[in-house]
Design goal:
Structural class: mainly alpha
Helix content: 55-70%
Order of helices and strands: EEEHH
Radius of gyration: 25 Å
Number of strands: 3
Largest sheet: 3 strands, antiparallel
Number of helices: 2
Distance between the termini: 61 Å
Length: about 110
């Protein structure tokens, strides 16, 4: 048996293995309704994970766009809000550090070869 919270229309909002304050019903673990809810929940989590990965890639695209706009003189770096400038600087430093580490590792590998 699992403990569930339903909305006003009777749709499952939350499922727990132990009783909780907002629970409004119980379901058999083998119920088709629970199985459907679990499948839908997994699908939602998979799609959210895909969006998060896309967001990470999009951040890099936006960084590159800002760099191109600044380099071409379309905008000035100082036109950006201070918080945005700080974040871009932090990311640029982190990438530079990573490039330095990669370079050091490549040198070590080359020396061993």
């Amino acid at each position: 048996m699992v403990y569930v919270q339903r909305d006003a229309d009777g749709l499952i909002l939350r499922v727990e293995s132990t009783p909780f304050g907002e629970m409004t019903d119980t379901l058999a673990v083998e119920s088709e309704e629970l199985a459907g809810w679990l499948r839908a929940s997994e699908e939602v989590h998979a799609r959210l994970s895909g969006l998060k990965q896309s967001d990470l890639a999009m951040v890099r695209v936006l960084e590159d766009v800002v760099i191109v706009l600044v380099e071409r003189g379309v905008i000035s770096f100082t036109d950006l809000p201070e918080a945005a400038r700080r974040k871009l600087d932090e990311r640029a430093l982190a990438r530079a550090d990573m490039e330095g580490i990669r370079g050091e590792m490549t040198e070590l590998i080359d020396k061993r070869s």
